[in-house]
Amino acid sequence: MTRYDVDLFVIGGGSGGVRGARVAAEHGARVAIAEASRWGGTCVIRGCVPKKLLVYGSEVSRQLEDARGFGWTIPEAQFDWPALVAAKDKEIARLSVAYAERLKRAGVRLLEAHARLVDPHTVEVAGERITAAHILIATGGQARVPAAGTWITSDDAFHLPVLPKRIAILGGGYIGVEFAHIFAGFGVAVTLVHRETRILRGWDPDLVAEAEHGLIRHGVKLVVGRDLSEVDHDLAMSAIGRSPLIEGLGLDHAGVALDPKGAIVVDEWSRTTAPHIYAVGDVTGRIALTPIAIREGHAVADTLFGKRPTSIQHHLIPTAVFAQPPISAIGLTEPAAILAGHDPQVFRAKFRPMRYSLSGREEHVLIKLVVDRKTDRVLGLHVAGVDGPEIVQAAAIAITMGATKADFDRTFAMHPTSAEELVLLR
What we know:
The chain has about 425 residues and is an alpha/beta fold. The protein contains 11 helices and 18 strands. The chain has 3 domains: about 5-55 and about 80-145 and about 245-305, FAD/NAD(P)-binding domain, CATH 3.50.50; about 155-240, FAD/NAD(P)-binding domain (3-Layer(bba) Sandwich); about 325-425, 2-Layer Sandwich (Enolase-like, domain 1). The strands form 4 sheets. Strands 1, 2, 3, 4, 5, 6 and 13 form a 7-stranded mixed β-sheet that branches. The chain has a 5-stranded antiparallel β-sheet with strand order 14-15-18-17-16, with helices on both faces. A 4-stranded parallel β-sheet has the order 10-9-8-11, covered by helices on one side. α1 runs parallel beside α8 (about 290-305), α3 (about 50-65) packs across α4 and α3 packs across α6.
């Protein structure tokens, strides 16, 4: 029997790679992992975690406005961007160290350098060649920018030395919408430019409308169906998505195929075209969400070393755009339900939440439940408004279990909350 240096070599120290490496080691496998940058990957270092911290920081300006309605008299507030960046960086450094320490405790060998395949079972990293029975590629993605012009990306936005007076953001997806609100909350004049006629492709049309209204209410100039070249700005940010990070991996040396968009081709077991090489997360071009990469990495480890073969079916995935207010959803939209052959029945409620009853903020919560008329099964839940992501995450458990509208109806309400409308929809 061929003897390898390790049972599993993981390339990429982000969420999916770290989970796969740690779980494999906990199953008793000999594991090594290489990361060329910082432990934590896109989500921890330059994605969802620092982004959410900036969202929290930028929301304070709204909270100060609302405080007057509750009797608070607050002197004019001053915002210190460098102080926020420094605090954010301290927290990200703490998390990155925590990722590395947890790997070490599990017995994983950490290599802080770029890794590449030299043959189907050999990885070269920092001049060392390591053989592996199995290889897991989890290198994530990188921000795309237009071919012409000078751009920053979301990666750069986390480290700006000073805030611009005016910024133009190209792209109406998650990243563009969230950063438009972030910058606007810090007092920057923001123009969001989207080449299509509606932002947030694939979202329920009612939630898209709420998100567009939210941007406008927050002072963002929304420009659709046009190009950024027509907009005046001091700084231009590209938020047109991310591409799989495959450069320099040596995939051709191992027989790993790519799809036309440059993503690694995998099956439901995350196997590539080289049977002993796996890939998870954004590098596969499937669903670019951190919890998905984590679940995929865990499944690979369970399949290979845990005696629990686990495939991944990418459906009923809760997700959110942390706009202000946010939108969130799980399951089918009304148009998607019709396309899938369902006869959807839609229940909805739209109301001003109690938290704005005294402040007078013109902002509402929209809750929309899509139900299959024949089976009564809940097909999708779509929420726009404050606390929406927390509501959807909790309701996702019931929907994943196959809950019906009748199940929702017989659930007692918790009053006064926005979430109680879930069980009061008629």
